Amino acid sequence: MILFGLIITTMASRMQIQRSATDSVINYVEKYNQENVRNIANAAANKALNALMLDVHQTVGQADASLYGGDYTYYFERRTQDPTLSPTQIRITAMATYEDQKDTVIVLLTRPSFSRYAYFTNHEGNIWFATGDTLRGPTHTNTYFQMSGSPVFFGKVTSHQVYNANSPYRESYWGPTDPVFLGGTEWGIPKIAMPDEIPQETIDAAIAEGIYINNRYVWIEFQSDGTARIAAKNTSSTPNPGEYVTYTLGSTNGVIYIHYSSTRPLVRVKGTLNGLVTVATRGSMEITDDLVCAVNPMINPSSDDMLGLVAAKDIVVTNNQVDQDRIIQATVMTLNTAVNNAANFYVQNYNLYRYGYLRLYGGLIQNARGAVGLVGTPYTRKGYLKDYRWDPRLADMTPPHYPALFALRRIAWWD
Predict the structure, then answer these.
(1) Which residues pair with 323 in a beta bridge?
(2) Closest Cα partner for 52 from 398, 415, 414, 409?
(3) Element holding 233 (H helix, E strand)
(4) Same domain, 307 and 384
(5) CB burial class (10 A; 0-12, 13-18, 19+) of residue 99?
(6) Under-50 pLDDT residues of the chain
(7) 213, 184 Cβ separation under 8 angstroms
(8) Do 87 and 106 sit in the same domain of this protein?
(9) Apex CA 412: angle with CA 190 and CA 138, to 5°?
(10) pLDDT of residue 201
(11) The pTM is what?
(12) How far apart are CA 361 and CA 384, in angstroms?
């Protein structure tokens, strides 16, 4: 009996050891499979990221592809596929299978719009920020800034270049220089490239569901009732009332694009906007009067009125009056590759007469900085003083199909 008991006990112990060994192998294999399927899912997400690096507009995913003995699928989603995404967000979903295991990785990205900047230039030129200038919101140049006196910056100020080893910005020779940086600074950051023509996605949007105009001269007058009166023709004479067509902006995707094949068109714009609109042109643009939102976003931050202006050439502030302010509630972007003081965004006759404040609420993005005034005493200065304020709604909103940076920023990675 004792011998039989020892045999039974030994056999039970061996069976327990064998069972433990078998369970260990099964657990190891399952753990291995879980780790492998997780690696496949992450690799698929990285493949999707690489596809976006090659073409930020990529929409075609990949299905049932083989990798490491398993399979993966990935696809892209933007606001057109999921209305809960913001206009600048892209979501990657990567799914993997290996043996009996499945895993999913989700990556949320944003492609920031140039509209996020209060002020942006590729080239500053021989233009100076001076006492009396006030900027709010993110401010950047791909060269270096030039400062005179005590201009005030409420947002973060960054530049790609620095003036010299002693100062990141150039200081004036005709008086003390003490700019006020209330939002902090960062100098020598990587260059931020900008397009030199209207992006094709903006043009395609106008063709698909927006307003596409093929004329040499165009006049746009926004109306507070959500419409826009537009006259378009190939002669420069002032249009009569019968030459205007009224468009209901709510029945479009908000993109108005003006093209003319033989030469660059000229667009004149003014009025009170009710809606979300981007006006883009292959040519130049003139802001001929105040350009404001029906619901003032400076007073009511929940306003859903927002305007973007984008010109491949210049945007000029015209019809200016002595000692009078000009109000522009829009995000303004000019792509003119010319680098001189009369290029890009500038004020007509800025060096002849003294105006009031140029009150820009939104943002100003330009290849080369244009002149809006000349430095001087309150009695000798010319042009406008600047009161540029960033619209904080631009942190989450952007005018429809507004040009975006050639870069992606990861918001989250779930695996």
Answers:
(1) none
(2) 409
(3) strand 227-233
(4) yes
(5) middle
(6) none
(7) no
(8) yes
(9) 40
(10) 87
(11) 0.78
(12) 15
